[in-house]
Here is the input.
Amino acid sequence: MSITSDIIRGHTETIILAQLNQNDSYGYEINKGIQLKTNNQYELKEATLYSAFRRLEQAGMIISYWGNEDKGARRRYYSITKLGIAALTQNRLDWTDAKEIIDSLVNGEE
Amino acid sequence: MYEKLRKRVNVLFEDAPRTSRANELKEELLANLIEKYNDLIKSGNAEDEAVEKAVSGIGDVDELLRGLKENDVFNYEEMKKERKESALIISISVGLYIMSVVVLILLSEVFQVNEVIGVSLMLTIDAVATGLLIYNAISRPKYIKSDDSMVEEFKEWKSSNNEKNKILNSIKSIVWMLIIALYFFVSFIFQAWAYSWIIFIIGAAVEKIITLAFQLKER
Here is the structure.
């Protein structure tokens, strides 16, 4: 359980990029998506999520814009950039590699 | 109930730097919390319970605030350039002050030009010099504290110190203008050219007194 959440946290940025690759989104929606896909087992802390947003934005992998909600507070939407898509593709390859390596390390018998 | 959420977020951001980025982050966080809160209410939570759950989901805000501070690195290169510029302006204006007297002496003693023209020219040069000094004092932006680290405290202290120096410099330049005006006034009216130069020495003493008064007030 704790290993899983550690791994998820370690891939926060890739998870965000993967969500944004489907459509522009905002913090809570992304977090809800994570909850939904993990059957309510996991969700990111807001602090973790926004820190990742800032890092991605500074790296030029996502851009943000304010939505125009009539009532209540404005939402900040994020959109993936070409650089972000490239990073996502690379991260997916890296993850596949890592999965295989860890598989062989954890399950492999001499 | 949204007000309650807003208050909780404000408490969390108490230590945040007062920057637009911090405010934007706060607004973003609040918008998402409100939505989360609404969902929690819909799924059958009591209001207070929903607030608690929403706020506890925020996690470690320090991580976020650190991120905000990291990006407010003070631009030393720009500051150095500004300082150079300001030093140049001050040097030019001081040079002009001294030159204006030289011009007057040259015109009236060597070239025998009418004294009124000489004095007018001198005061014009002084006016330009004073204008430069005032421009220099006004055009430099006051440093606004962006976070509460010790470095920031120091920068703010330095900035406020500069503010005081600017005021002091302005007062000094005004005093010198007055001294020069007084010198000519006394000299022309009483024809006391032989003795009136003593006014400049008194002027220098007055300047020192003003500086001292400022320093004593500092303590």
About this structure: Residues 138 and 166 of chain B are 9 Å apart (CA to CA). Chain B touches chain A through 23 residues (CB under 8 Å). Chain B is about 80% helix and 0% strand.
